[in-house]
Design brief:
Elements: H1 3-27, E1 36-40, H2 47-54, H3 67-75, E2 80-87, E3 92-99, E4 104-109, E5 112-116, E6 135-137, H4 154-162, H5 165-168, E7 171-176, E8 183-187, E9 192-196, H6 201-217, E10 224-226
Parallel strand pairs: 1-3, 4-6, 6-7, 9-10
Antiparallel strand pairs: 2-3, 4-5, 7-8, 8-9
Amino acid sequence: MSPTIRKSVIGLTFAVLLFVGGFVVVGYSPLLNIEKIEVYGLHHLTLGEIEERLGFEPGDPLLSLDQSATQRRIEALPRVQSVSVERSWSGVVVVDIIEHRPAALVMSEPEQWALIASDGRVLSYGLMSPPDLPRISGIRAAGVPGSYLSSDSSALLSLLRTMPPGLLERFTSLRRDPATGDLSGTLNSNQEVIFGDDEQLPAKVVALSALLGYLEEEMRTDRVLDVSVPERPVVPTS
């Protein structure tokens, strides 16, 4: 290597080391500390619950923030569906949280109902006075918050996710027959809905919406609505 090239390499290496060293020094200096933490998206969770899992606080060096680790700690909270942690060189850290939305209730122990999300995640311990959500039965009991319902709930969860909110909120209960796997439900009008097996659930939901619309136009309150064959929904007569 010629002296000229050697000098150039040495000079370049020195410049890189100087830049990196300066970056680290500045990054861990008071000039780049965390100045402010902003948390968005809280509905049921409290700010205190989030602060306990941040792993940093105002005054800490901005470069010490491990965003991935913070996200994992916060996502471990049963109510959290997703979270993003973003930092800016102004010293502001933004934590944006999306909470799971309770979709139904599943019994966790006798007379106690746990909140669950549409993906089957258990969001709470058993409640003696739960909110007005569809009560799911015919499956294994809900576990502790943060766990997921057992596999026998898959068809009912698919039904939950398929229904538009306006239709789902009309149900007081949804059931799975443990022997046959057939699905059924009860509306807040006390009408019974027969879904049958877990095939063609989207088509069955569409058929039910159309059937309810027709019956309401005719001012009928038939007791049983059978959409087990979505191409031919029927209203059995007693």
